[in-house]
Amino acid sequence: KADCVVRCASVDSFSFPDFEKGRNTNIAAGINLSLDILEERKSQYKQVGVKYYQPILVVISDGNNNIDNDAYEMAKKRIHELERNRKLTTLVISCDEDSNIKELDSISSSGESLKITHDKIESFFYWLSRSVSSYSKGTIEKVTMKKNKTEKIIL
User: Fold this and answer.
1) What pTM was estimated for this model as a whole?
2) Distances from the Cα of 118 to the Cαs of 19, 32, 45, 51, in angstroms?
3) 28: which of 3, 46, 74, 137 is 20 to 30 A away, CA to CA?
4) Residue 121 to residue 63: CA distance in whole angstroms
């Protein structure tokens, strides 16, 4: 079972919850719940005629799936299918020193996960929000978080 802690929202409109490392991780349930929420959101947009960009799924995990490996493999296939059809972009993040990088790399069809320290997760989402917002406005922002330097490129 997975629970939704934060529904689709602007990064500026909520405070980031603290997540605790657990022993009974059901990554499949989390992935499937997230993909279902994204599909629901896209359906709502379509119903009212709102255009939207390809959704981005952010998976933050240690890569140690401890429950229902068959469901986990099916959830990864679901992600790969959506990515192959250009209906999803997936960013997989490891924020634990003991992460199973091989498993994390297999979640997205890109085969790559990002390593971000726990204290940088909030900054990552802020950067991601700014990048998506800039793209939708016709610019790409290249942000260097350490130096707080921004370079804009007009499309």
Assistant:
1) 0.76
2) 10, 24, 33, 33
3) 46
4) 17
